[in-house]
Design brief:
The structure is a single chain. The chain is of the alpha/beta class and about 950 residues long. The protein has 31 helices and 23 strands. Strand 8 and strand 9 form a beta hairpin. Helix 11 crosses helix 14. It is globular, with a radius of gyration of 31 Å. The N terminus is likely disordered. Keywords: Cobalamin, Cobalt, Disulfide bond, DNA synthesis, Nucleotide-binding, Oxidoreductase. It catalyses: a 2'-deoxyribonucleoside 5'-diphosphate + [thioredoxin]-disulfide + H2O = a ribonucleoside 5'-diphosphate + [thioredoxin]-dithiol. This is Vitamin B12-dependent ribonucleotide reductase.
């Protein structure tokens, strides 16, 4: 039994001297900020219903509308409309920071009251400037009359007794009621192939999972707006492992059958509740012994729970195949690598690590919890595009101090969880915006440079955390379980240090960070030997869903960027779609000139990807690879990034490896096998469209009937078309015709184009002069001109030629002497853009994304490409009293930004995506679907009805901040 250490009694040395790094002496952080009032109105896009409204909330002027909306709806306490309702960011930051500062003083963390004040100002500055955020329970509970719960992650335990099993249901229920999640391992429960003491046969863990799943579903439906979050783990040598593995896959078969019979089986549908085991993530805990048996093709023994004897032998490869097949079918189960997890365990003398939290990043002792905080990495990128390691390290040690203080006053859902947490003081510092940081630095996510940068940052974060933990141990004492586990803890610290020594840096930026990390780990070993450590664990990489939006992060956790086009809410209401603001920064970093940056960003706005973007070198494509889209990252790209960071984390990484729908079961097996070999602690996969229970526009029987009706109609049309014989006729040009000749220069090559039109102005012929008369090039261009001219006269629309020949990429390419077409990817690209400008109407060109110089200038001045006679004068558009452009709706139903907003966005190099491509899109996921024509396989938000996007092992809604189980 360990003795709990808490309060001032644990103090062994002088308090901390807090250095002022971020805030300004003599000036409160709030006084350095311009504050503004906003109205927060949240609407369910699906139903049109207003689900939340609070007017006059106060936020810094640099906070996005999305961030302020999420904080207002999620974290402001007090009934809406009452006098006690919080209405300013200052209220919740003061509520939290002052509670932490007061507890730090009471428990002896600070040398003087002046140091406590500096701590308060520094923490406040970091929070209001979005440098980091605590996890959601802190914002929910700290400083309120509610229990001061600060932890988001819980691990429970269950033994092979009915009392323990029923207690599991109870404890899980209380945790779900509070909006959190928990995980546990059921491997202690006897299998259905073993006998009870009474002589009967045991029920087995899968049967008890059914009761827990029903309990979780009931509590969720009792008022929560998100599914219960839970993780269920079973060891691979459990005799019921096959039943466990296939449990959710068989339920998916049931979903398909019921859906085809006309039942509403969408997520949240009225009939989905009849399906079991849907409230948990399932994972198999595999051993090195099992994985080696899979490699060798040998047999593997399943063991009795009470005696440990082998009661059944199975083919390891066959069992591994069943695991991978189930994951291929329904995304469950994931794998947790037991020997790797416990080889990095700092407290093995207390007990093994058997389970994780629902998202698999927190792995520690049974009946424990972890409070989390995440840093916004992009905030530490200097103007010269190098990472500020020194500033990052200072932020980390301040945040770790605050997180440890919170354990002194925190409340916990059960007594056993409270005792373990206080005795071992597990922390979970992490980060968000890694994907955006790497892109801004010109580093591909799936590249050696990107992985080296991520590894060194992660190493510095954890090294600096343990350094501060050792410093705290000298002041307020090591954690109560340290002496029992001292040798093991110090061994793991040496493993981290050794892993840091193996990192091979590739450029100045990551070598600077690596140097700081190396110094931090040297201090960890030195101070740890002398003082011990205050915390058994220090770091994890969590999904950072809601808090990621609070910090205005482009990317969550360790994830790459979701897509290059984003959905942005605007002050005053409405929204617009923009190109990710990291893109122009990355292009400038890689040496592209302003004209080239503009052309590439325009191309991304139209197409949603960089393939064939004008002037962009193919070797730079990888910098802009995203989770979704034309150049989506390969599955092993995700695995390799996790493997680069895993050796520098106390816990694990919340992340799902996405596979395309076309992926095979062998692909799943490869991801799981390579993850083990590369030293990951856990892996989960998701194959696109694997799950049936995803919300669609019209599900169930109606969708089936509509599909059948559409197929029948298509068949009728096909039969009718078969009977129609189409014979094209040639429309010749008159003998005397209107024509125009254009001289041009593309990338230094000169040429001439003569175009002739019919009497109605329709283009009928094109002649191109390039190269010397009689040369091969001149002959080819003559033949091409004749082919295009005949096609035009036989009725091929000009817009068809334009869509086919623009964006063709070959030399000569580059700058032109045409003010309307400033950059061209080739002569063909230029010619057909020029023809479009000369002969196509504005509406057709707008759909193709082709605008004249005057139209682009009008866009900057008025926020619209359209001619002024159609939309009103510029004065009217800029005059809010006569025509409020900020609230005007364009012809596609999307909102047009105000002129000031549009100009500001243009200056940042992030033009709006064409409205024709974004009709009815309300999130980045929906926007990507509209632009690329590909589906994003994620659920709709229960709160606001928009499509969520992946975040770690869960989903998060960028419209309102709701999550599918993680905070």
């Amino acid at each position: 039994m360990t003795e709990t250490v808490s309060g001032a009694a644990a103090k062994t040395g002088a308090g901390l001297k807090i250095q002022r790094v971020f805030s300004t002496k003599g000036k409160h952080p709030y006084d350095e900020i311009t504050w503004e009032r906003r109205d927060v109105v949240q609407t369910n896009w699906k139903t049109g219903e207003t689900v939340f409204e609070q007017k006059g909330v106060e936020f810094p002027d640099f906070w996005s509308v999305n961030a302020s909306t999420i904080v207002t709806t999620k974290y402001f306490r007090g009934a809406v409309g009452s006098d006690v309702r919080e209405w300013s960011l200052k209220h919740i930051v003061d509520r939290v920071v002052k509670t932490y500062t007061k507890a730090g003083l009471e428990h002896g963390y600070f040398a003087t009251k002046a140091d406590a004040e500096v701590f308060e100002h520094e923490l406040t500055w970091l929070l209001v400037h979005q440098y980091f955020s605590f996890n959601s329970p802190v914002w929910f509970n700290v400083g309120t009359p509610s229990p001061q719960q600060v932890s988001a992650c819980f691990i429970l335990s269950v033994d092979d007794s009915m009392d323990s099993i029923l207690n599991w249901y109870k404890e899980e229920g209380f945790i779900f009621k509070g909006g959190s999640g928990a995980g546990l391992n059921l491997s202690r429960i006897r299998s259905s192939k073993e006998l009870l003491s009474s002589g009967g046969t045991a029920s087995g863990p899968v049967s008890f999972m059914r009761g827990a799943d029903a309990s979780a579903g009931t509590i969720k439906s009792g008022g929560a707006t998100r599914r219960a979050a839970k993780m269920v783990v079973l060891d691979v040598d459990h005799p019921d492992i096959v039943e466990f593995v296939e449990t959710k896959a068989r339920e998916e078969d049931k979903i398909r059958a019921l859906r085809d019979a006309g039942f509403d089986m969408d997520l949240g549908g009225k009939d989905i509740t009849s399906v079991q085991y849907q409230n948990a993530n399932n994972s198999v805990r595999v051993s090195d012994e099992f994985m080696r048996a899979v490699e060798d093709g040998t047999e593997f023994g399943l063991r009795a729970r009470k005696t440990g004897e082998v009661i059944e032998t199975v083919d390891a490869r066959e069992l591994f195949r069943k695991i991978s097949t189930a994951a291929w079918e329904c995304a469950d189960p994931g794998l947790q690598y037991d020997d790797t997890i416990n080889d990095w365990h700092t407290n093995p003398e207390t007990g093994r690590i058997t389970a994780s939290n629902p998202c698999s990043e927190y792995m520690s002792l049974d009946n424990s919890s972890c409070n989390l905080a995440s840093l916004n990495l992009l905030k530490f990128l200097r103007d010269d595009d190098t990472f500020d390691a020194e500033l990052f390290a200072k932020a980390v040690e301040l945040i770790i101090t605050a997180m440890d203080i919170s354990i002194c006053f925190a409340d916990f859902p059960t007594e056993s969880i409270g005792k373990t947490t206080v005795d071992y003081r597990q922390l979970g510092i992490g980060y968000a915006n890694l994907g955006a940081l790497l892109m801004a630095m010109g580093l591909g996510y799936d590249s050696d440079g990107g992985r080296a940068m991520a590894a060194t940052i992660t190493s510095l974060m954890t090294g600096q955390s343990y350094k501060r933990s050792a410093e705290l141990a000298a002041i307020v004492g090591p954690y109560a379980g340290y002496q029992r586990n001292a040798d093991a803890h110090k061994r793991v610290m040496r493993k981290h240090q050794a892993a840091n020594d193996t990192v091979r840096t590739l450029h100045v930026a990551d070598s600077q960070v690596h140097k700081a990390a190396t110094k931090a780990w040297a201090e960890v070993i030195k101070l740890g030997e002398k003082n011990g450590f205050r915390n058994a664990q220090a770091s994890v990489l969590a999904p950072t869903g809601t808090i990621g939006f609070m910090m205005d992060c482009d990317t969550t956790g360790i994830e790459p960027d979701f897509s290059l086009v984003k959905f942005k809410k605007l002050v005053g209401g409405g929204s617009m779609q923009i190109v990710n603001q990291t893109v122009p920064r990355a292009l400038r970093k890689m040496g592209y000139q302003p004209e080239q940056v503009e052309a590439i960003v325009d191309y991304i706005a139209e197409h949603g990807h960089v393939v064939d973007a004008p002037g962009l070198k193919t070797e730079h494509y990888e910098v802009f690879d995203c989770a979704m889209g034309a150049r989506s990252l390969k599955p092993m790209g995700h695995v390799r990034m996790m493997a680069a960071c895993q050796p520098f984390l106390s816990g694990a990484i919340s992340k799902t490896v996405n596979l395309p729908q076309s992926a095979s079961i062998e692909d799943v097996e490869d991801v799981y096998l390579q993850s083990w070999k590369l030293g990951l602690k856990a892996t989960a996969i998701y194959r696109d469209n694997a799950k049936v229970g995803q919300p669609l526009a019209d599900g169930g029987g109606k969708a089936k009937k509509d599909a059948a009706a559409a197929a029948e109609a298509a068949e009728v049309i096909e039969k009718v078309v078969e009977k129609v014989v189409y014979a094209p006729t040639r429309k010749r040009l008159p003998k005397s015709r209107q024509s125009r000749t254009t001289s041009f220069t593309v990338g230094g090559a000169e040429g001439y184009m003569t175009s002739g039109a019919h009497d109605d102005g329709e283009l009928g012929e094109v002649f191109l002069k390039l190269g010397k008369q009689g040369s091969t090039l001149a002959g080819v261009m003559d033949a091409f001109s004749i082919a295009v001219s005949i096609g035009l006269q036989y009725g091929v629309p000009l817009e068809t030629y334009v869509s086919k020949f623009t964006n063709l990429r070959f030399e000569p390419a580059g700058l032109t002497d045409d003010p309307d077409v400033r950059m061209s990817q080739s002569i063909m690209d230029y010619i057909f853009r020029r023809l479009a400008l000369d002969y196509l109407p504005f509406e057709t060109r707008q759909a193709l994304g082709i605008y004249s110089a005057d139209e682009r200038q009008r866009y900057l001045e008025t926020g619209s490409y359209e001619p002024l006679e159609e939309t009103g004068s510029a004065a009217e558009l800029l005059d809010g009293s006569s025509a409020d452009l900020a609230g005007r709706v364009d012809s596609s139903g999307g909102r047009v930004a105000s002129a000031s907003e549009r100009i500001e966005t243009e200056d940042a190099g992030v033009p709006e995506v064409p409205a024709s491509a974004t009709k009815e899109a309300h999130t980045s996921a929906e926007l990507l679907e509209k632009i690329t024509g590909t589906a994003v396989d994620s659920p709709l938000c229960f709160t606001c009805g928009t499509k969520m996007r992946p975040a770690g092992s869960c989903y998060v809604c960028e419209g309102c901040g709701s999550t599918s189980g993680c905070s």
